[in-house]
Amino acid sequence: MAIRAILADDHPLTREGLRSYLEHESDIQLVGEAADGIAAWDLIERELPDVALLDIRMPGEDGISLARKVRERKLPVAVLMLTTYDAQQYVLAALRAGAKGYVLKTATPDDLIQAIRTVASGGVYLDREVSSSVKAVDFMPESLSPREQEVLLLAGRGLSSKEVASQLIISERTVQTHLASIYDKLGARNKTEALLLALKYGVVTLEDLLE
After folding, report:
1. pTM passes above 0.85
2. From CA 57, how far away is CA 209, in angstroms rounded?
3. CATH architecture assigned to 3-133
4. What tens digit of pLDDT does each residue of 136-154 get?
5. Phi, psi dihedrals of residue 107, rounded to the nearest 5°
């Protein structure tokens, strides 16, 4: 089935350009567009799309606030931020709010399509420019074991715990144990934060995640 997506951006030319990219992809269906945050939320609630492409700054309500509402209401919608802002504080705020991806408007159409497919399948996607700007600061995490790195990377590509277990030929309970250890070592609360922190501290690279 096609990935159902909505697009929210207050610039008509941006929406038109993005629409033209998406219309060429047979596995992605654009089911709605919005020019502000209020209309975007109405679309999200009504359509329950697989992916919501949201600009960070919009009239009415910003993309980060919308991502937080999606998370709080536990809606089955993957939020993908599409923005011009690459500052670390925006990236962290978006992912902590529950966004599953962060793509700059300077990204290529192929990168955008890959981001949509990644978050739709349950993975996390960070623009290459964004990931390179997220640097370690004053904390050095405990090293992950090779097995923990494998578990984290597979989970980050959208695999469920059962699928990770099958691929690594270990039990699902062992996968959960590894994830708990990963969260503890990185100081993360969930898979999204663990991936972000692992990238931030250089534990894994974006190239590892996208292989």
Report:
1. no
2. 28
3. 3-Layer(aba) Sandwich (3.40)
4. 444 445 678 889 989 998 9
5. -65, 155
